[in-house]
Amino acid sequence: MVKRTKKQRQAIVDEALTRFEIAREAWSDVFESAMDDVRFVDAVDGQWDEATRTTRQGRPTMTFDKLSGAIDQTVGGHLQNRPSVKVRGAEDDDADTAEIYEGLIRQIEQRGSKAYKTGFKYTVKGGWGAWRVRHDFLDDDSVHQDIILTEVKNPFSVLVDPIVQTADLDRMRYGFVFDDMDKDEYEKAYPKAVSDMSTGYDFKGSKKLWMNDDTVRVCEYYRLVEDGEKTIHLLSDNRVVEEDEGFLALLDELAAAGITVLKSRTTPRTKLEHFKLNAVDILEEVDEVGKFVPLVPVLGKNSIVDGELLSRGLTRKGKDAQRLYNYERSTYVETVALQPKQPYFATANMIKGHEPRWKAINTSNDPVMLFNFDNGNKPFRQAPAQPSPALLTGLQISSDDIKSTTGIYDASLGARSNETSGRAIRERKLEGSTATFEFTDELNEAIEHTGRIYVDLIPKVYDGTRTIRILGEDMAEKVETINRPMKDNATGEDYTLNDLSRGKYDVKITVGPAYSTRRAETADSLAQIISQNPAEGELIGDIYYSSLDLVGADELVKRKRKVGIQRGFIEPNEEEKQEMAQASQGQQQAQAQQQQLQQAMQQAQLAKEQAETAKAASVAKLNEAKAISEQIDTAIKKQDFQGQQIAMQRMQALQF
């Protein structure tokens, strides 16, 4: 954190106040018109101005809101066809890292999905919306920071550099997010800060709007400032590198590899600064690592008229037609409501004695009304006033005027019309989408700029070895380890696994139905194909099962692919190739073990047979030795010295 003198701090506050006034003045017309539009749609009785309400005091002033349907249709179309950020690596070997970037962005956007919806909703209503991007700890137990997409519930609390009225969003130099805090809350949050117009502080002009008896305005001020210069070089392998302390050593390595410098350029180095301040001092300085002001405005249908930006939503051009429709409907209701109250013409004698009943005639359900004839006459009522045909025609015209100003007609809102085929119905609904496509285009531009902010922040926020969760296109969660130092066993060289600081990346926006919608449509289409040609089920069965939202669908896909791989009409993916290799290796090991077992069994059987043979030979020799011993005993008893000698020779010939 930079340590600043009191004079430097005051200079920052003065700059912020000056820029705040410039931005407030530049956006004042856009903000006032947008707030009036939002009030017209959302405020209770917002569609009746005070002057008309006063003149119609005691008469119906009813609201029959037809604009909200068109707004909801446009916002709902966005929710069904959400734009998504696609990240592409500048080089082929950056593809895997780009996939991690993209999956991480999906995770960030899923956590902050309300930010896009709220910003777009305000844009469609009034022509101005906003969101912001921060980096911070997700909770008190986190040790790593994350990128956070933050909803701006009040877009009129965001002021950005007016340069974006005529230039791209990435040209923004400064921006503000302000909050008028209750004074008690402010003093608790900043007990040492100034909270009123104390002596010693010069409050002039707009500063008085920042502090009053009830509130104190706390403003977050972002600004880009120059921080020296940097030299960048374009290499012959299309890489762009920044010159630093190790650049000369890098040049020698590049020269050895045959890579040369094609172009060089010196440009200003900028850094982002972030302050929280009131009208007189800096309350807090927040560390920032990005190069873009992380505030993203979303404009509506816009154009420059007489040098000033005009931005509008669906509401603005439909307000007069909606007011007229409310007036005509209220008049119609008033006319119809007065019909049962047409007065009776009667003399005093006609109702004499029955006065209570006649006074309650408009509130009572009494089926009989008693009266007295007066000279043969009875009470009578004149024919009630009928709604004017011109009034009914005006109602229809006003209703059609609302549709023509929004560009959304009955078919787009789900009403039945003359179209009968599915294609004709879709084409009719697309007319409404075409009329409001400029809103979607402005949203896409804002999200594309947000994607550039993500790509700039990711390598700076996710800068150490850590495990992160990313989302695939099917929103399945996956865990990746990033920035892990590794050693190549083959070469012995060091490298970094999933190095997010490496490479350059481009951002593109794609728009289409949500994955769940496309998945359901795929399942329906494949089911029709299989029903018409059952043989196709063998070939596309795994794809069909993967599109079904069923418990156990993944297992069905696995089994179907296994059969297809065995039959040769499904190409195994990398994971399946590894599983097949492991299975083959396991089978080979099992076969080798079986062969070893058979050999061991054969050796054991041979040993057994040899042992049995040896045992039999031993028994035979033992029996022969017994026989010779008996022969010797007999020879000794008979004193047969020759027989005795022969027996002894036989005994000596035996080998044990």
Describe the structure.
- This protein starts with 5 loop residues before the first helix and ends with a helix.
- The model has no long low-confidence stretch (mean pLDDT 84).
- The protein is of the alpha+beta class and 656 residues long.
- Helices cover 47% and strands 20% of the residues.
- Helix 1 (6-42) crosses helix 5 and helix 3 packs antiparallel against helix 5.
- A hairpin with a 4-residue loop joins strand 8 and strand 9 (282-286).
- The chain is elongated.
- Strands 4, 5, 6, 7, 8 and 9 form a 6-stranded antiparallel beta sheet that branches.
- The longest helix is centred in the C-terminal third of the chain and has 64 residues, at 574-637.
- The protein has a domain at 576-653.
